[in-house]
Amino acid sequence: MDDQSFLARRLDRAAAPLAVGDVLVLLALLTVGTLSHRSAEFLANEPTYLLGVWAPFLIGWVLLAPLVGAYSAGAAETAKSSVPLVVRSWVPAAAVGFVLREFVFRGGVAPTFVAVILVTGAIALGGWRAIYFRLR
């Protein structure tokens, strides 16, 4: 019988660079998206605005990505295993982000926004991981 907890089996130290990269990719994606709707001047005058944009999706990511396996041993081995795990992790994490965005943080969840975030998030996260393993 395995003495490791479920969460311990889902977290592998070798995946730490992936975790850092994933968060940076999400921050970049959400920042670029915000800049497509708000000016840099607006963001300079409202320094906490981006925190409200980032928070719901980062909370969803931190809660669900480890559970789905984004940082398991398999995720740290090859792009072939890592990319599908990050995409499968993004979908429920983004869903939590949408709920938090609608009911706790600023912003809505128009169907177009949901579609764009799901697709661009999956492409950005999967793409970054594919590049990571190619360069490794």
From TrEMBL:
UniProt keyword Transmembrane, yes or no: yes
InterPro entries in the cross-refs: DUF3054
Tagged with keyword Secreted: no
TM spans (from-to): 14-33, 53-73, 85-104, 110-132
Pfam families in the record: DUF3054 (PF11255)
Record keywords: Membrane, Transmembrane, Transmembrane helix
PANTHER family with a match to the protein in the record: T12C22.21 PROTEIN
Name listed for the protein in its UniProt record: DUF3054 domain-containing protein
